[in-house]
């Protein structure tokens, strides 16, 4: 494995993972091969959709929302695949179960950290609303109050989040989990492990991008290299290259924020602040009104985007949690994994 700050380390310190999950005596049937190819082809198409024509779209909340949606879909596909190959949990190797449960805990922790940061950013919206409200009836006192609220917004946005700072350690642990357990004489196990590997790579990378966005540090980006034996490898490599390169350029330019919507708010605030610092008699009312309206629009766009993204993060949290609960329930009952997910129709899962 290697990270952006340590490019000399091999991504596969344990050797070729594809060889590890392809032992002799575990030949795939045509049906199992179709299931695996379908999963990997779908994942490849999903990754391609995250590569926009305009690179600026990568640095937006709308792109982050799409990325989180893709994670939900991939993890749901893992549960569907586990059902389609009809591999009872009782036949799972203990190492597979340990890996799945360990990863799920880490992903839940990451979701909690991301949710806390989105909530923190949205709290700044209240400070801007307070500032704009004070400017509805301009007066020297209201200008002072508006300036105070804007100063509070700046301090709030620039403050750190301890939970986000811990994401680096969690991501390191996720990288360690990419080491695939050996599969002995089990074609179905091979399919399951190879699919889980694809899901883990996509998850670790996209979570590292989110952590970089929220922390303002390119050190959290992951430069993952994958073997070209996977159908999704080329799409992933292209996505990784475009996203990492664009974010690093953004950081190297010393921009206020990586997120486009947040930077738009900051630009509006920078135009508004000098206006309300002057004497009331010298303020051009038309310029003040236009700048207040612009700040209000950009702030509302940011707040709505954060709300939508928060819902997707919560959705991913629930997907991970339901999968974990289903596995634990199946272990107790001996059922096929994901038969017991509450509110999920098995027929719907098969055709998803």
How does this model look, in words?
- With 352 residues, this protein is mainly α.
- Helix content is 69%, strand content 0%.
- It has one domain.
- The chain has 12 helices and no strands.
- Helix 4 runs antiparallel to helix 7 (167-176), helix 4 (94-134) packs antiparallel against helix 11 (285-333) and helix 7 packs antiparallel against helix 8 (187-215).
Judging from the principal axes of the Cα atoms, what is the shape?
elongated
Q: How many whole angstroms does the radius of gyration measure? A: 24 Å
The share of residues in helices is 55-70%
Strand content: under 5%
Low-confidence runs: 1-25, 339-352
Helices and strands, in N-to-C order?
HHHHHHHHHHHH
Number of helices: 12
Keywords:
single chain, 352 residues, mainly alpha, 12 helices, 69% helix, elongated, disordered N terminus, disordered C terminus, transmembrane, ROH1-like, Protein BPS1, chloroplastic-like, membrane, transmembrane helix
């Amino acid at each position: 494995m290697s990270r952006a700050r340590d490019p000399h380390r091999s991504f596969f310190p344990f050797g070729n993972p594809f060889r590890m999950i392809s032992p002799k005596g575990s030949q795939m049937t045509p049906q199992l091969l179709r299931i695996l190819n379908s999963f990997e082809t779908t994942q490849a198409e999903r990754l391609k959709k995250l590569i926009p024509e305009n690179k600026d779209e990568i640095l937006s909340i709308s792109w982050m929302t799409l990325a989180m949606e893709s994670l939900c879909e991939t993890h749901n596909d893992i549960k569907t695949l586990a059902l389609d190959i009809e591999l009872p949990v009782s036949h799972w190797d203990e190492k597979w179960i340990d890996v799945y449960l360990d990863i799920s805990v880490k992903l839940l922790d990451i979701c909690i950290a991301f949710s806390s940061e989105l909530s923190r950013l949205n709290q700044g919206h209240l400070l801007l609303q307070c500032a704009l409200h004070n400017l509805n009836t301009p007066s020297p006192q209201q200008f002072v109050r508006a300036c105070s609220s804007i100063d509070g917004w700046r301090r709030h946005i620039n403050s750190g989040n301890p939970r986000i700072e811990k994401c680096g350690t969690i991501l390191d642990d996720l990288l360690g989990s990419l080491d695939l357990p050996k599969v002995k004489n089990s074609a179905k196990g091979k399919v399951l492990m190879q699919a889980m590997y694809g899901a883990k790579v996509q998850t670790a990378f996209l979570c590292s991008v989110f952590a970089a966005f929220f922390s303002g540090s390119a050190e959290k980006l992951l430069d993952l290299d994958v073997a070209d034996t996977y159908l999704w490898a080329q799409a992933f490599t292209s996505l990784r290259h475009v996203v990492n390169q664009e974010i690093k350029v953004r950081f190297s330019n010393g921009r206020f924020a990586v997120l486009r919507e947040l930077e738009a708010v900051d630009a509006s605030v920078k135009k508004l602040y000098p206006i309300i610092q002057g004497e009331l008699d010298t303020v051009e009312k038309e310029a003040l009104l236009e700048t207040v309206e612009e700040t209000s629009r950009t702030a509302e766009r940011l707040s709505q985007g954060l709300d939508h993204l928060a819902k997707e993060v919560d959705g991913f949290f629930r997907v991970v949690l339901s999968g974990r609960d289903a596995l634990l329930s199946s272990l107790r009952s001996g059922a096929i994994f994901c038969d017991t997910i509450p509110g999920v129709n098995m027929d719907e899962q098969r055709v998803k």
